[in-house]
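Need tokens for this chain, all 425 residues.
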Amino acid sequence: MAHAPVAGKPHFWNLSPQALSEQLGCGLEGLSHAEAQARLERHGPNADAPPQARGLLTAIGRRLREPLSLILLGAGAVSAATGDGVGGGIIVTILGLSIGLDTVQEGRATRAAEMLRRAVALRAEVLRDGAFRQVPVEEVVPGDIMRVRAGDIIAADALVLDSDAFTAGEAALTGEPYPVEKRPGAVVTASAAEARNALFRGAVAQTGEARALVVGTGRNTLFGAAAAVLGEGQEVSAFQRDMHAFGLITARLTLALVVVVLATHMLFGRPVLESLMFAVALAVGLTPELLPMITTVTLSRGALRMAGRKVIVKRLAAIHDLGAMTVLCTDKTGTLTQAEIALARSLDAAGQESAEAARLGAIAASLGGDRGALDAALLASHPDAAQGWALLQRHAFDFTRRVGSVWAQGPGGRLLIVKGAPEAV
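Here are the structure tokens for all 425 residues:
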């Protein structure tokens, strides 16, 4: 993972902002436009390396190198050379349709994934030339001062300089569904999951606001390092290995029988052309010409059914892998469950069930502007609770005091609603 200490070198969250800014060769007042451009050229764009694109000819060539494809090509060529142009044409046409369908299907899936990636292009807010401005996330560089607000996707790894009731959801990195508080102050831990003063690329700001010093971008982030490992190579699936092995067995058996039959015919003095035609017919008869077409059509149907469930299949062979799965090991949160908090019931001070407590909580959540998981659950249970109420004053939830409050004017007069830990309230 990125940021692993080397020869005693500490993680960036173990350093003070001043020490880190000296290490990065920048100040804490943001970068100029010229300095940001120079750093962008030096460090590269804040993005993962795009997958190496394969051309159409490369994709077709890869499929033609399969043993079954080579057998069919050879049989078609020999058929045409010996005067059976119709038979040779049929064989080559079947092979061409299979390869074409496979190539087109995977090409469409790749283009759809790329269009989806471009459709969700993000922007980040950074301090440039003394003022905060929006820039594409690709232009964020180490040394930038980044401002993050509730709802933003964090664009880079960064050290928190100051924060106001700021929390971030790091489920994409740790699998933990609930937001974690982020605040300034160096920590001694070596674990990124315990670094409460660090923001990580790919996390989502849930509440509050924070300013942070950008430390790593692109592949030099925890998220980018993980993405790079996952994208290093495309492993051949069990289905592809089995098909390749079957093709090799068929090719060897066919070649051996053709040689034996041709040699036997020649030994008995049969005409060379007649012997060759018989050997080719034997090769074609032994070769399952329609197998590539059948597998491609079957997998394509599976890909279309998955597309109907809003799943893009980039490799057709993955359909077989999914169907052959016997045991699935997966993180429960956000996959088998929705990672959402819901209000089951509310209790009053005496411990008795009371809807009034939830209603007051929903009013505070609506007027206070907090968008934490608990606030969202209260609002969902009483969406119209704040109708007729007006905010007079609020104090945002503070993780140090563990209390937040709302002073509001409503139908029953003025009301102070306080939320927080029971002992703090």
